[in-house]
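Box S2. Input/output pair 1.
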Amino acid sequence: MRKLFVPPWHRLMVGELFPALEYRSVNRQLLPVWLLLGLGLGLRFANLLGKPVWLDEAFTLFHISGFQPQAAVTNLVTGLPVTVADLLQYQQPQVAHSLGQTIRNIAETAPELPPLYFALLHRWMQLFGGGVWAMRFLSAIISLAVFPTVYWLCIELFGLPIVGWYSMALIAVSPFHLNIAQEIRPYSLWSVCFLVASALFLRAQRRESWRDWVGFSGAVLVGMYTHLFMLLPWLIYWLHSLLRAKLQLTRAFKQFVVVNGFIVAGFIPWLWFGFLMPRGGREAVFAKPFDSSLGLIKGLMQGVGRFFVDFSLNETSPRWGLLLYGLCVLAVLGLAGYSLIYVARHGPRRTRSFIWLMGLLPISLFIVSDLLLNASRTSFTRYYTPSVIVIEIAIAYCMAAKQTFRFQSSAIKPRWEKRWLALLLVGTLSCGWFILMPTWWSKTKTAANLCIVETTSSAAASVIVTDEFYMRSLALAHQLKPTVAFQFYPLKSKTAPSLTPTVQSTFLYMPSPQFLKAMRGRYQLRSVCQPALWKVDAIKE
């Protein structure tokens, strides 16, 4: 009977740690993995233009332009017509603004977003243009590196290639990973940095090689300059090192402390420039409060579940659909909990603490901080991406073990094979639904953009009046015809401007309650894209 090929450098590890592993019938179990891996790779490049640019992507591109937020407000909020071409200047690199100016603006206005991804995207746009397809293509390319790096991390954790294959399959059909692979955001790059840093961390601990430790420090620094929350995995590296060394100064722990000195020294410039220098005008981050503790837990459960199954359901969806989705989420969460326990009981001793700490501690810190600060970071699934990646790896290990380990009863293996195929099936269906949908639940405020584009395009020339935050108009401008113009007014305006509405062309876009009341007092309004767009029909007599 054919055996699974194990690379020579892993055979010793497999033989020492996993004498109970059997390689029989692995080809049959890996066949759906290989098929879904190919499907997942292809889906990352499918329909890159299918979804409208949303608010976070518009923020990313605004930072690339090098404009100061206050300068944009001064130039735009004048009540004068602003063309689509004028708006898109705030979404492209400008000759007058260097990359250094872009980095300075990020440090002054959004220091929680380190500049590495923005610098990379800035250079990419200079080489390949600023089209939405080209910019999302960069994220799709970066996302491909997740597959070999998660395989590498699985080898370092378990020494089992089959776990690496199973993990790649889960990520290939994960709707969350597909989503971030098609966004102009840094989360795919952050995922790669985390996986590389974790693999090098475990390898350096095992081999006690300075070369591996130097590579680890470089990967952590790149991750920190990609996303500030790389500090959380870095904290886990410290805790795992302390537990592994049993609070003693072992050779590996001394090496770890030394290279972390370089990590701290390398990140101090951004901490100083972005956070410690006195500077005003920053906006509060994570200011949105949560509704209740129950709502916080519900958001967390949905967030973790959406890594595996997501059909973009919301409160307006049919009840039967919400019920089925809820059952799927509960099943996935139950499987995740069981897998973590299974790793704790049967996984290699040297990696159990890593799986548990990385999988649970960052999420727990988010929950505690949200309860203390009345914030809502837990609802943002992307913030604890490393934790759920580790949970995905734990599930992959459990599934592979249940189907291939000799000490497992032959009666239970078919049942676990069915559960494994069911998990892959719901992920595949979720990814297919994501590709087909014109927008997604996480971008609800852009859902009306499709209607707005169709409505404004039907007129020869349209004017859109708004007192909404200008960033939403920047996102909308990517889909509008060049003949459309905007007129911006201060936030929460209580005075209706003097307009000359025509039957064909004047619209009111996402007005504040105060501005809507003022406009209704002076003009006849008709809702055309509820609740985002009103048609200004005529002046009231």
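Box S3. Input/output pair 2.
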Amino acid sequence: MDIKEQYMSMPYDLSGSRSKNRFRVELLWGIDKMLELMESDKAFTMVFDYVCDIEVHMKDELEFYQIKTHSKSQSAYTTESLTKKKSKNSQGSILGKLFVLNATEGHNNLIAIVSNSPYKMPGNDIYNGIHCFNDFPKLEKEKIIKAIKTELNVEEVDLSTAFYICTSMDLENPQNAITGQLVLSFEKLKGCEVERPATLYSLIYDQVSEKACYELSIGSYDEILEKKGITRKEMDYLFDCHAKSAKTGIDQTSNYIDSLSDLVAKKKYKKALAKLVKSMPVDKVLQNKEKEVASYLVALESQGDLLGSVDDMIDTLTSQFHDTFPIGYDNAEKTVFYIIIINKFTEGVYDEDDI
């Protein structure tokens, strides 16, 4: 059984209902995990809220992270609290719902509970940081194995890929920590400062939230990755759009709009530019349309038919592409979209071999 077959055989929606705050914490911890993965050389897709809270899909590996937040007034987790069902009608214990992801035939996946609460052992020993269940005291391991065998009706329980992660991240107010880590990761990966860090954070958070909230029927593994996941390549694209050294065409487009004497058009174009700055890095329709328009400009240039002024180029692109957009993009957005591409084109962004 390969990774795809194994995954599709798993029960989905294990997380159940949760508060808005816990949902937000899940997303932010997932973003933090994505930043960690971005600093590795691994290709990945992170899936939000399908069979588990946070999932990492790689070529031959699956990782599952169940997020559990604790207030300061709540007791620390223990073996008993993690292996006990809340009620007879509940889906299962916290650990049982996680170990079911390793109960199917095939690969032994990494599974982990992530919490801001430490793990309390008998004798008041406290486990902070990252701990493999296989390294727990013998008696605790035996309790866990017995409980999982009974709950899942399995003969073998492997603890070697199961972890308890007591995160140092402030799960009650994580946004500041994530924003700081985003800036650090960006500078490490791109070798320059991030342009508009607050905008980049909002883009990533909105994209993650959209993926997590997708609840329509999904029929295949590839569709799950598309509808519920974010890839390393998509994160790279978002980062590239916010590098200070990047040739995005945004500043030149803003200057062009500021130079307009028509105040009504200027206001419409400014509004459209603000919308496009946020949507172009994540909107696949616009990304594909950008390739079409850029290819057209490259072809015109090679034929010697490229008109010189920005206004002339806008007119040419308007007649060629205005009617090819799907419903949902107004004329101001289309025009500003052309201006951005024209400016990127004049900056030499589009290589014929890369379009």
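Caption for Box S3: The chain is about 50% helix and 10% strand. Strands lie at 45-48, 54-57, 62-68, 110-115, 119-120, 126-127, 129-132, 162-166, 229-231.
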